[in-house]
Amino acid sequence: MSYGKVEYDDNLDAFKCEICGKWFHSLSHHVHFIHGITINEYRKRFGLAKSTPLISYFERQKHREREIKKGTFRRLKSRPSFKKGDNTIQKYKRSAETLIYLKERFYKIAKNKKIDNKN
Ligand SMILES: [Zn+2]
To pair with 74 at 20 to 30 A between CA atoms, which of 8, 9, 50, 118? Predict the structure, then answer.
């Protein structure tokens, strides 16, 4: 292996783990559960770019089909978007829990400001 490059086998459609030398469809799952490190730590250790794919084509296809079945793309489209100066978003109803949280947070900030002013 050369630093900054991951070994990929076309026939296996798998990536080589540089820690144990075995081949896997998904390196992120493998390094997390077997070696106990995150995929970001693995990337750092072997100089891999964040954009380097570490999931096989087969696995990506499986993920894609599952998300299309679940309709994730529809939920992403329906999410309200925020724009600077747009106040319409405040018209959404907030739950009682959220209102209590916001009230407590407001008083905490106000209290801290008073303490700051005394100093
Ligand atoms: Zn390994």
Answer: 50
| pTM higher than 0.70 | no
Q: Does domain 1-80+88-119 have CATH number 1.10.10.1550?
A: yes
Q: Where are the domains of the chain?
A: 1-80+88-119
Cα(6) to centroid(ligand 1), Å: 13
- CA 69 to ligand 1 center in whole angstroms: 32
Look up residue 74 and give its two tokens: 């529809």
DSSP structural state of residue 90:
G
Q: How far is the CA of 15 from the centre of ligand 1 (A)?
A: 10
Q: Are 46 and 37 in contact (CB under 8 A)?
A: no
- pLDDT tens digits, residue range 51-84? 988 999 999 999 999 988 988 877 776 666 667 7
